[in-house]
Amino acid sequence: MKGNIPEGIAFEMTTTLTGKGQDVTLIAVSLACRGYCEYYSGDEGEAGCGGLSAVRNGIATGKIGLTQVSYLLDEPPGPARRIGGLISELCARCSYLESGCDFISESPPPDATPCGGYRLLQALLDCGALRPEIVRSLVAGG
Ligand code: SF4
Description:
By secondary structure, this protein is mainly alpha-helical. The chain has helices at residues 11-14, 24-36, 50-61, 66-69, 84-90, 96-99, 116-126, 132-139. The protein starts with 10 loop residues before the first helix and ends with a helix.
């Protein structure tokens, strides 16, 4: 299902974060799906995806903004890691939990990758732009 090779978040993708009246979902899709998801095929994103939902909450509440995302400009996503907190909280609320997400299966294929929302949140945690408790609040709805 891999459709593209994400090259990371580019400056033009962040410009919408500074504008008022922008559609939060479109911004989230641009950053998480277009920037960091290897499954993204240019559509409007998957509404039931836990990763996209958490990123959308972060943008809507201002917890993910230009300041946080600027750390990631033009950085391709690093290798995905299984992070217990993300899997137990983010993935547990994702519709792909039941329909199948290779990354969180008990025996994941070697090349299995998470969605772009998961990868974006991992990157923000890794660079210190978001703290774990903030990520937990995004998963919980804001
Ligand atoms: S990694 Fe898989 S289960 Fe977890 S939020 Fe992303 S799509 Fe859903």
